[in-house]
Design a protein that fits this description.
mainly alpha; about 0% strand; 4 helices
């Protein structure tokens, strides 16, 4: 195979893998693969890499809080602030800090 053909096929490989090339281009590339082991091996390696990237990621359960949960968290936060405020106020008043 000529170096030019190999370079041309290598440039076209990403589009070929994504099926964005015309039927004539596909035919040219497939004929080139029959006669050039190096380009065929590169194509197979790229296909394997693409298939690995396209595998679904393991499902991660996302922690989501619905609107009722948000309201509960807001109320609990408010209560925590009020209780802390009362404790501090009581401490200041009983110990005569002010």
């Amino acid at each position: 195979m000529s170096k030019f053909e190999c370079e041309l096929v290598n440039d076209l490989l990403p589009s070929y893998i994504e099926k964005k090339t015309s039927s004539q281009t596909n035919q040219f590339i497939e004929e080139h693969f029959r006669s050039c082991d190096e380009c065929r091996e590169l194509y197979e390696a790229m296909i394997e890499e693409v298939s690995i990237k396209n595998q679904p990621m393991p499902y991660k359960k996302k922690f989501r809080i619905n609107s009722i949960g948000k309201m509960i968290l807001i109320v609990l936060g408010y209560l925590a602030v009020v209780i802390i405020g009362l404790v501090v106020f009581t401490y200041i008043m009983t110990n005569g800090v002010i």
